Amino acid sequence: MKKYTTVLLAALTVFIAVAAGIVSAADNVSDGSTICNVTTAGYECDSWSDEQYPVIDLCGEEYVPLFTTNGNICDVHVNKLARLILDSNETHTLGQGEKMYLGEGYVLEVKEISSDYMDVWLELTRDGQYVADQSISIETDNNKTWNVILDNVQGENDIVVMKVYVSNIFVGAENCIARIDGIWLIDYGNARTLNIGDKLGEFTLKEIINGTGASNLGSLVFENSMEPALTSNVTATGYECDSWSDEQYPVIDLFEAEYVPLFATDGNIWDSHVNKLAGLILDSNQTQVLEAGEILDLGQGYALEVREIDIDSEKAWLELTRDGQYIADKNVSIDTDDNRTWTVALDDVQGENNIVVMKVHVKNLFVGTEKRIVWIDGVWLIDYANARTLNIGDEFGEFTLEQIISGIDASNPGSLVFEKAPVIDETSVTDDTSVNDTSAADFSESPSSENESGKFTNKSAELPASWYWNFWKSLSMKLK
């Protein structure tokens, strides 16, 4: 009797790497090794648009191989890595003496703005300790970027660790602020040198390949011995904006992309529609500075416009559009903290009503000598217009939706169960084996508590056909 033999060597390596989130952006070869290549990336800040920096994707995070100011990009130290903290073109406004917390203990402070408003003195600290400082002039474009270069970073000198771009100095009636439009920062203080035999999760470094040219910047080769088992844990997340710090919203992670199950303003978080999903576009606490008539591009065709700023009534008239079409508007008042948040709730989103699609927080209104501006320090937005209702049998890549489990309480907000079809190689048909051979798939389920996900273990050498996901990131939500 003929038997179809499942081919899984390369496929299983890819599946494990994606499902476990251990090593990303990698090539997989026939011996089971995973190759992570150094690539080039352009800075988000337009002022550095003609420049690039090296990056390598490991463990689902971006790392920057250490590089110098005067070296070629192919000469980077491929095994000396610092995690990328910031690569941003967001606008930040800081007054004299104000600090900006960059994460991981790094802080940027405006020490002083010159009396002629043409220079700003910046200082970088880490964990409260001085690192570097520079007086930045805004007289010419060439002087507006501060490149922070340090020595003795993992034994290397002249290493680029931060870039800051000061676009302008804004003079108000009572004070002045520096406008920063670009920040790039690596966590050099926790940089790491990888050696052969070092481990990242379940992966072990097997080979270090140095760069040879612009088309080959170097690679790290890993091998893994991970067992074909997957356990997904329930986590919770809150809005990035501090003004919504006591609120949470449901998120489900499907194949390295975040989706928001549709939820209503007056419902419990476990009442969200687990199979009605919209992509998460923004969850930001970055400060946006806008004048009346200015439009903020939110992505995916969505835009936020400041229609009018009324200083006397302390209100900013905001309007949401999509592809140039009106969606909603609101006069947001800053007279009390409760009124500064605009929650946009819409009806008939995948057949559901009163669905939260956007939140905007107005921090303050500012009066200058010539202009009036509004500070927005929080924007949350889902792509409701392209929301999707999943039904049994629908496909996500190579996975098919097998079961929809609705939420029942705060500890069990719902799940989606996907099945993955095995890869069949018909060229491996043989006449001397049986379909009942012991190499056929064999699974066991580890019992779990009522409110946790189960762990499915493949006891055979074959590719698993079904996995159970429970990727919720939220447990409860308080709505104002």
Termini distance?
Answer: 67 Å
Secondary structure category: mainly beta
Total number of helical segments?
A: 1
| Computed CA radius of gyration, to the nearest angstrom | 26 Å
Total strands: the figure is: 39
Instruction: Provide the low-confidence segments as ranges.
Output: 1-25, 226-236, 422-480
Classify the beta-strand content into a percent band: over 45%
* Shape, principal axes of CA atoms: flat
Largest sheet: 9 strands, antiparallel
Topology:
Elements (H helix, E strand, L loop, with lengths): L2 E4 L2 H12 L5 E3 L5 E4 L1 E4 L9 E7 L2 E6 L10 E12 L3 E4 L3 E5 L2 E8 L5 E8 L2 E9 L7 E6 L8 E13 L4 E11 L5 E2 L5 E2 L2 E11 L2 E9 L4 E2 L21 E3 L2 E6 L10 E12 L3 E4 L3 E5 L2 E9 L4 E8 L2 E9 L7 E6 L8 E13 L4 E11 L5 E2 L5 E2 L2 E11 L2 E9 L3 E7 L12 E4 L8 E4 L7 E4 L11
Antiparallel strand pairs: 1-36, 2-3, 3-19, 4-5, 5-6, 6-7, 7-15, 7-16, 8-15, 9-10, 10-11, 11-12, 13-14, 14-15, 17-18, 18-19, 20-38, 21-22, 22-23, 23-31, 23-32, 24-31, 25-26, 26-27, 27-28, 29-30, 30-31, 33-34, 34-35, 35-39, 37-38
Describe this structure in words.
This protein is an all-beta fold. It contains 1 helix and 39 strands. The protein has one helix at residues 9-20; strands at residues 3-6, 26-28, 34-37, 39-42, 52-58, 61-66, 77-88, 92-95, 99-103, 106-113, 119-126, 129-137, 145-150, 159-171, 176-186, 192-193, 199-200, 203-213, 216-224, 229-230, 252-254, 257-262, 273-284, 288-291, 295-299, 302-310, 315-322, 325-333, 341-346, 355-367, 372-382, 388-389, 395-396, 399-409, 412-420, 424-430, 443-446, 455-458, 466-469. The strands form 8 sheets. Strands 4, 5, 6, 7, 8, 13, 14, 15 and 16 form a 9-stranded antiparallel beta sheet that branches. Strands 21, 22, 23, 24, 29, 30, 31 and 32 form an 8-stranded antiparallel beta sheet that branches. The termini are far apart. The model is unreliable at 1-25, 226-236 and 422-480 (pLDDT under 50).
